[in-house]
Amino acid sequence: MARAQATGTQQLSNDRVVVTQWQFAPGAETGWHTHSHDYVVVPGCDGALLIENDEGEVRVELKAGQSYFRRAGVKHNVINDNDFPFSFVEVEIP
Fold it and tell me: Rounded to 5 degrees, what angle do the CA atoms 49, 42, 78 make?
């Protein structure tokens, strides 16, 4: 069964950063993608995401405002694993 797609809305893009707000309905996903830049994620609410990667799945608990950083090259699919909408802001560093 196909999942709903998360919605990414680009808020800012220049030669220093790309800022995108991601909004997920319950069960929605980003689809498989590979990050070409380092990035920071800032969760907008508490909740869980299911991360699918080449090694399997991992469920991560996130807290509103508690940012995390990842290096370029991450390949994954991100799924809202909550029964409520979830959002985060992603800041890519070209």
Answer: 25
